[in-house]
Amino acid sequence: MSVAPAPPALIDPFESLRNWPAFYLSPQLAMDSDTATEQEPQCRICGDFPPSEQLLKLRCECHYCDGCLERLFTIAMKDEGSYPPRCHRRTISLNLARRHLPKTLARIYRGKTLELSTKDRTYCHKVTCNVFIAPHSIHNGQAFCQKCRSVTCQKCKEAEHFGACANTGFELVRGLAMQQKWQQCPDCKRLVEKIDGCNHVL
């Protein structure tokens, strides 16, 4: 009884190339080899793969490219619901992101941080000015505007006056708030209208 010869072993045509340096291979093979062995960091927002020096890596292992980081900080200054910039509920501090932001944006954001972190804010009562008055410029209930040099009452937010506040407009709004059952935020003092959700003011 004769035994059939064993089939010839299959030869991998690329076996001899696996140990070759990447520069001996074609550019496409070299690129595929690098992709297979090392995964490049990806921006969490746009999904691009920029150079590592244009990426900010956070403690949560997420990466943000310079462009998306700039938009994130810009939005935070315009929309208080997005302030401060966060990732996985952790704040992305300016000190951490400063190297990836334009100098002008970092400077403006640093100044805006004081305004957004102040609970009961006071703005200049003049419509043509209306700039934020920092807490260190408020003394004995009088807020001194550093831009136009006018004085605003910290309580009623109107021009400085003697005696008790007589802001009829504020009283009208307060009466409307009571009628509509609006609530006042204990921190920023703004009126809040409930649309849905719980009764807590966060």
TrEMBL record:
<keyword id="KW-0808">Transferase</keyword>
<keyword id="KW-0479">Metal-binding</keyword>
<dbReference type="GO" id="GO:0061630">
    <property type="term" value="F:ubiquitin protein ligase activity"/>
</dbReference>
<dbReference type="InterPro" id="IPR002867">
    <property type="entry name" value="IBR_dom"/>
</dbReference>
<keyword id="KW-0862">Zinc</keyword>
<dbReference type="InterPro" id="IPR013083">
    <property type="entry name" value="Znf_RING/FYVE/PHD"/>
</dbReference>
<dbReference type="InterPro" id="IPR031127">
    <property type="entry name" value="E3_UB_ligase_RBR"/>
</dbReference>
<keyword id="KW-0677">Repeat</keyword>
<dbReference type="InterPro" id="IPR044066">
    <property type="entry name" value="TRIAD_supradom"/>
</dbReference>
<dbReference type="GO" id="GO:0016567">
    <property type="term" value="P:protein ubiquitination"/>
</dbReference>
<feature type="domain" description="RING-type">
    <location>
        <begin position="39"/>
        <end position="202"/>
    </location>
</feature>
<keyword id="KW-0833">Ubl conjugation pathway</keyword>
<keyword id="KW-0863">Zinc-finger</keyword>
<dbReference type="GO" id="GO:0008270">
    <property type="term" value="F:zinc ion binding"/>
</dbReference>
<dbReference type="Pfam" id="PF01485">
    <property type="entry name" value="IBR"/>
</dbReference>
<protein>
    <recommendedName>
        <fullName>RBR-type E3 ubiquitin transferase</fullName>
        <ecNumber>2.3.2.31</ecNumber>
    </recommendedName>
</protein>
